[in-house]
Amino acid sequence: MSDDVKGKLLPGIAGICMWMLVVALVGVMGALNGVYTGHARYVVLPVATMIVVGVFGLLRMRRWGWAMVLAGTLLISVMYGYTARTTGNAGLWVMSLLNLCFFLYLSRTEVRERMRI
Fold first, then answer.
1. How confident is the model at residue 6, as a pLDDT?
2. Torsion-angle region of residue 62: left (phi > 0), alpha (psi -120 to 50) or beta?
3. What per-residue confidence (pLDDT) applies to 9?
4. In 1-117, where does DSSP find H-type helix?
5. What are the distances in angstroms from CA 83 to CA 1, 31, 90, 108?
6. Which residues contact 103 (CB under 8 A, 6 or more apart)?
7. Which of 117, 108, 114, 109 shows the shortest CA–CA distance to 5?
8. Across the strands, what pairs with 62?
9. Do residues 64 and 55 touch, judged by C-beta distance below 8 A?
10. What's the start-to-end Cα distance of the chain, in Å?
11. 85: which residues sit within 8 A by CB, 6+ positions away?
12. CB contact at 8 A, 10 and 114
C-alpha cells in the first residue's frame, strides 16, 4: 500500500468508533444507575474509559488507538457471549456477533496498513 493512503480514515472505522462510544456511554450510565451489581460496576468504568481513549486514538489513526479498540471489541464480544450463555438471553448473541464482526474488520490488512505509529 502506498504512503498516500496511510492515515486516511475508512468509513468502517468511523462507524465502529461511533458504535464503541455508544457502548461506552451505555456502560457508564448502567454503572452509575446501579444496573451492574457487585464488582462488575468497578470493572465497567475502566473498560469504558479504555474504549473512549482508544476511540479517539483510532480516529487519529494511531496504532495504539487501533490496538485498544481492537481489544475492546474482542472483550465486549466475549462479555456479551458469556452473559448470553449464563442468562439464556438470545438477543445478546446478536450483540456478541456484531462486536466480533467489528473485531474481524479491524484485523484486516487494509485497516492495519493505514495506521500511523
1. 76
2. beta
3. 83
4. 11-32, 40-59, 63-87, 91-106, 109-113
5. 40, 16, 10, 27
6. 70, 73, 74, 77
7. 114
8. 116
9. no
10. 16
11. none
12. yes
62-69-46 Cα angle (round to 5): 115
- Which residues have CB under 8 Å from 28's CB, separation 6+? 44, 45, 48
Amino acid at 71: A
Q: What is the mean pLDDT of residues 105-114?
A: 92
CA–CA dist 3, 30 (Å, integer) = 43
| DSSP code, position 10 | P
The cell numbers describing 74, all together, are 474482542
pLDDT digits (tens, 9 = 90+) for 28-83: 999 889 888 888 888 888 889 999 999 999 999 999 999 999 999 999 999 899 98
The C-alpha cell at 8 is 486516511
Q: What is the pLDDT at residue 3?
A: 64
